[in-house]
């Protein structure tokens, strides 16, 4: 664009998306001074992440972990409290909304709820064209053509353009949501729980479509999900979030087979599986995710950490916050734990965990 | 214990009167459960799994729903019993745990009082004693600081805690049967593991029968002894949970299991079931799954297959089960 500051500083080989020390805090409680105390929900509390071109990065976590907020702040749909978001070599966090408009076209979002995210009173074709109109793309005829092509690429007949949202099933609505995002030819799409509201037999159809589009169009995804099965199947890398921070991030094939953070291990162990396994092996975390208004001191996972208990509650966990650092064993993985597990896979079984307790690692 | 089932459902049919005419939502559903046993009813949306449970305990609106067939609870027929009788059964003999505890709990009464209410309603002592017992039930469902929690209102509790309170209330009626409808669907995976463990332990220890209704095959696999797979208002397959899930006999269960994503299936591509789930207003002719079935032959569109016994303790509703078992179509 005309703005010289937007010159691409990063080469095409740099990451497409980069988050640096990103924070999003929401004030809650009384807004009137002197009456009541102003509190803050630290939804995202210092996140560093990169997403390479063509890569699918999954963000997993329980409700309240801040994963949805992270997606929204990344796209600039919510303003960051502090920290930086970089997209293709351009810093987004200090741009005006007018300047962001150009970049927005290249970044889209697909929402979880295919019922709530479509306008019930507008034919779906018009809704897909709306984005093109907002970004002044082409003339009326070429927009129409683009809209029809978008419908076809998600597996819906172009004639469906004149239909309304209620005429579609859940899976078809999610296809419309994807078509709407695709119409603008984005490079980056935030998928916020895109298959969670769908039935199993429909979920696999949509996942296959997303995988197909990723290959065909070279798309980069941020895949936000609470479902570890879906993430393990679909993503290249995974970031595990807990109370606004990343606990562990790395390639899926390493994090799923050799998890190092005790929270990652507990999450993986909690997923119900069809394959038979000894239920005594199941690692059940006690308690619930604490309030993001007041996260625990030191390591924020320590109040539920099974490993800390086995290690005899080291003081360090409550006094010093572990930083997300590259693992010495597998540098592609970063872990935020004072006592990362060398053989996380073993600790998924009960016997493995007793072995850890018998020989605690010195750190 | 005698082998008499706690509940025995035979040929249950449910239809609704609507402006568009009568819609048949559940057809010919039969199952039975013995003490301490857990039956998982699995199905996607619109399969009729929740409606079947609601009909069992007489919670469908009489003017709208037409229910026929037989539901025998402790040997006694429930279909056709007056509302006053059903009211006694619910909470006393049969308890229900719903998916969304916030809408199932009374928002203006503390959870301690709500549990105590169940206890007094079934003549288990006066209020003072009931309040004390309510705290014991909260302790039983592993709620920390039960005495303090008993004085709180539902909105003051987290989702997992509310679901525990619901289970405490269900147990307080000392029922012979608990029906849990998607009890963990709204919960996070670590909380889900806690709640499922709790539900299973509480029922096994007390010999309570459990019907677990869910869309999650992983959840039934870990919790249920037997499962019934429902599709378009009918049971299409049933048998011991592990057997059915690991070696499905019918095409729907087979492809449903194959379409679940997992780390193990990474890079292998995911099977899908083509098309969409049919609506009860226009169920297909013949086998209701035939338009989506990759094994279908012309006969499948003409005649509806019966749920047919297959092997020990198993049954499947499919003409082509033999071909599927041989691994080809």
Please explain how this structure is put together.
The complex is a heterodimer of chains A (363) and B (329). Chain A is α/β, with parallel strands linked by helices and 363 residues long. Among the domains of chain A are: 120-185, no CATH class; 260-358, no CATH class. Helices cover 31% and strands 19% of the residues of chain A. Chain B is α/β, with parallel strands linked by helices. Chain B has a domain at 250-325. Chain B has 13 helices and twelve strands. Chain B has helices at 49-56, 83-92, 101-104, 111-121, 127-140, 146-150, 159-172, 189-206, 217-223, 241-246, 251-258, 298-302, 321-325; strands at 7-18, 21-33, 38-42, 65-73, 76-77, 94-97, 177-181, 209-214, 226-231, 234-240, 308-309, 315-316. Chain B has an eight-stranded mixed β-sheet, sandwiched between helices. Chain B has a four-stranded antiparallel β-sheet with strand order 2-1-4-5, covered by helices on one side. In chain B, helix 4 crosses helix 5 (127-140), helix 4 (111-121) runs parallel beside helix 7 (159-172) and helix 5 (127-140) packs across helix 7. Chain B starts with 6 loop residues before the first strand and ends with a helix. The A-B interface holds A 62-63, 169-172, 199-205, 207-208, 226, 228-230, 232-234, 252-253, 256, 266-267, 270-276, 279, 282, 284-289 and B 44-45, 144, 158-161, 188-194, 196-197, 215-219, 221-222, 242, 245-246, 255-257, 259-266, 269-274, 276-277, 292.
């Amino acid at each position: 664009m005309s703005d010289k500051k937007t010159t691409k500083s990063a080469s095409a080989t740099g990451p497409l998306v980069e988050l640096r020390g990103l924070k999003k805090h929401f004030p809650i409680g009384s807004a009137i001074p002197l009456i009541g105390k102003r509190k803050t929900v630290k939804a995202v509390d210092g996140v560093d992440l990169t997403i390479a071109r063509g890569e699918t990065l999954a963000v997993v976590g329980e409700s309240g972990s801040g994963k949805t907020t992270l997606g929204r702040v990344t796209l600039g749909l919510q303003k960051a409290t502090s920290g930086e978001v970089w997209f293709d070599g351009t810093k987004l966090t200090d741009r005006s909304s007018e300047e962001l408009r150009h970049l927005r076209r290249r970044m889209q979002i697909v929402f979880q709820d295919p019922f709530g995210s479509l306008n019930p009173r507008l034919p779906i074709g018009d809704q897909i064209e709306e984005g093109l109109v907002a970004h002044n793309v082409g003339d009326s005829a070429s927009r129409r053509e683009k809209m029809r092509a978008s419908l076809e690429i998600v597996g819906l007949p172009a004639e469906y353009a004149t239909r309304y949202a209620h005429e579609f099933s859940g899976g078809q609505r999610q296809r419309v949501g994807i078509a709407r995002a695709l119409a603008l030819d984005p490079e980056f799409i935030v998928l916020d729980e895109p298959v969670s509201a769908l039935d199993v037999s429909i979920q696999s159809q949509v996942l296959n479509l997303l995988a197909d589009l990723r290959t065909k169009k070279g798309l980069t995804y941020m895949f936000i999900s609470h479902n570890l099965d879906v993430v393990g199947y679909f993503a290249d890398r995974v970031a595990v979030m807990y109370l606004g921070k990343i606990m562990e991030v790395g390639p899926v094939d390493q994090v799923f087979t050799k998890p190092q953070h005790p929270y990652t291990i507990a999450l993986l162990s909690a997923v119900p599986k069809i394959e038979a396994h000894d239920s005594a092996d199941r690692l059940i975390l006690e308690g619930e995710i604490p309030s993001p208004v007041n996260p625990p001191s030191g390591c924020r996972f320590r109040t539920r950490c099974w490993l800390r208990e086995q290690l005899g509650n080291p003081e360090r966990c409550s006094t010093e916050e572990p930083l997300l650092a590259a693992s010495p064993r597998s540098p592609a993985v970063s872990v935020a734990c004072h006592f990362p597990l060398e053989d996380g896979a073993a600790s998924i079984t009960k016997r493995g965990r007793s072995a850890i307790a018998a020989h605690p690692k010195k750190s | 214990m005698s082998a008499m089932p706690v509940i025995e459902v035979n040929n249950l049919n449910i239809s609704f009167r609507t402006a568009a005419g009568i819609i048949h939502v559940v057809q010919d559903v039969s199952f039975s459960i013995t003490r301490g046993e857990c039956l998982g009813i699995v199905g996607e949306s619109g399969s009729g799994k929740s409606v079947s449970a609601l009909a069992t305990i007489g919670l469908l609106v009489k003017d709208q729903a037409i229910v026929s067939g037989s539901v025998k609870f402790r040997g006694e027929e429930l279909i056709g019993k007056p509302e006053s009788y059903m009211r006694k059964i619910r909470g006393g003999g049969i308890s229900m745990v719903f998916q969304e505890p916030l809408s199932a709990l009374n928002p203006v009464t503390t959870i301690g009082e709500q549990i105590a209410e169940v206890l007094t309603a079934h003549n288990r002592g006066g209020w003072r004693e009931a309040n004390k017992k309510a705290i014991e039930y909260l302790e039983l469902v592993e709620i920390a600081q039960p005495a303090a929690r008993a004085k709180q209102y539902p909105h003051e509790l987290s989702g997992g805690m509310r679901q525990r309170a619901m289970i405490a209330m269900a147990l307080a009626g000392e029922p012979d049967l608990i029906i849990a409808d998607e009890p963990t669907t709204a919960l996070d995976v670590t909380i889900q593991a806690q709640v499922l463990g709790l539900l299973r332990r509480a029922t096994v220890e007390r010999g309570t029968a459990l019907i677990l209704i869910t869309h999650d095959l992983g959840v039934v696999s870990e919790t249920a002894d037997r499962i019934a797979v429902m599709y378009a208002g009918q049971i299409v397959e049933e048998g011991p949970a592990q057997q059915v899930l690991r070696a499905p006999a019918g095409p729907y269960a087979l492809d449903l299991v194959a379409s679940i994503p997992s780390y193990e299936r990474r890079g292998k591509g995911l099977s899908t079931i083509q098309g969409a789930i049919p609506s009860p207003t226009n169920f297909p002719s013949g086998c209701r799954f035939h338009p989506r079935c990759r094994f279908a032959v012309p006969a499948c569109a003409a005649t509806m297959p019966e749920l047919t016994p297959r092997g020990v303790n198993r049954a499947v509703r499919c003409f082509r089960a033999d071909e599927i078992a041989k691994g080809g179509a």
